[in-house]
Amino acid sequence: MQFTLFGDLVGGIGLFLLGMHLMTQGLRKAAGSSLKQILRTATRSRLRGLVSGTLITAMVQSSGVVTIATIGFVNAGLLTLAQSVSVIYGCNIGTTMVGWLIALIGFKIKISALALPLIGGGMLLHLAGRGRLAHIGFALAGFGVFFIGLDFLKGAFAGIEQHLDLSAFGSSGLSLMLFVAAGFALTLLMQSSAAALAITLSLTASGAIPLAAAAAMVIGANVGTTSTSIIAVLGATSNAKRIAAAHVLFNLITGLVGLGLLLLLAPWVNHIDAARFDLVLLLALFHSLFNLAGVALLWPLTDRLVAILEQRFRSQEEDEGRPRYLDETLVQMPSLAIEAMAKEMTRLDQICSRMAREAISSSNGDTSHLRAQQLGVDQLAGKIGAFCQRIAENDISSEVSGILPTALRLVRYLNEVSRLSCLLPGYYDRFEVIADEATRRDVHQYQKASIALIDACEIDDSVDRGADSAHLLLHQLERQYQSLKTSILLATTERRLSPEDTVQLLDALSHIHRLAEQAEKVSRYWSGITPLQHRDAAHIAAASPQH
Question: Does the predicted TM-score (pTM) go above 0.85?
């Protein structure tokens, strides 16, 4: 008998988790790229961010998925840290919808009457439908599996009070803390607060544990949701760690609020008559109330919280060799991944442009600073290349498939800019000892023209410089380069320059010319990795009211 009970319990938890997984994956894929647009437009104010976080979490049925997606949106530059914090608030309210779903449907109707038709209809829709419709069918089937798992849990816990009497655990602080720890441990082990909540509600419905103890388990499960975001940001970017910290702080504070209320009310709570009141509904209500209380408490302090978080986890941002925008949470959403990669490449381009300007214009022969920057560029370029490979491992569109090789090409050009910048300081002394005044002046003008081209080619999100203007500047620089080479060779034949100086000078000018060519190629091919951004911008412009 006990073995059968254990089998039903483990099987019920497994089916519940499987149903949650299928439902979450189906709904996430059905939302597709529109999820990005929803969050982008729904977080223009803090209140909208709260509402959107609540609704999206209630729709997807997973606060963990929305939290990880929010981390990805911040890394892609679609959300600010302040906006993301309000979304995190909403996620914690939205996750209480699972409790209401279980309380209002799972314990009120005959499960098989709802679950089996959902599984059959959902899979039929998944097989017969295409695109979004097929994903919705997958989610419906997961919804049915979710309820079958819940039915097994109900059956496993029915009569369990005869074998496991926990009523002795009253309303003392130590007892409640033990149940908080139990709720946290269940969520940590199963990586699902919904599963921990389902177990808690089933135990309450069976009468195996007092209501106060069940409420303490709900608090523990709520705090346990932070484990998903903590695991997700191990070794991740600074923004990811800040959002995870906000999530942890919010859940700890709300947990303390809920525990404080429970300690005050526990003696009264345990005497509520189960014959008159629905204890499962009361638990779902308690779960929502202490999360709402946490939002009310932290809402006025959000600006201060954001300011504190922005001062933390700065080491990764100070190290230019570490990505700021690339994050493993994005690779499952190619359009977001491309945008994050474009932002990272913009940063890489700006680093390389700075190196090029410094190398061309400086007369300081100390190359240690440039070498240190080159190491960072090499590391960052490698990360971008690996990120491209991770994106390609997924089911991607032909548009994204065409972007990835172009991105790798641009990374190669930028790497070459970095390498050439480190070679130029070896020729500084030749620039300084040019005997011929006219040649020295021409070389100086060529250096200035090269820097102007570097400036024109530098990628800047706020300015559309245009590849055509950069290409025109390169043509002008090419004519200037050929003219300068001719004048140098002429000066050499007229003995105004030594042959040794000529060789070194022409070699240095060749390096500068090649550096400028690589920078222009980046500007020319840049639009090839941003079609998704241009398309989204066009959609937004088309949707905006005309004046």
Answer: no
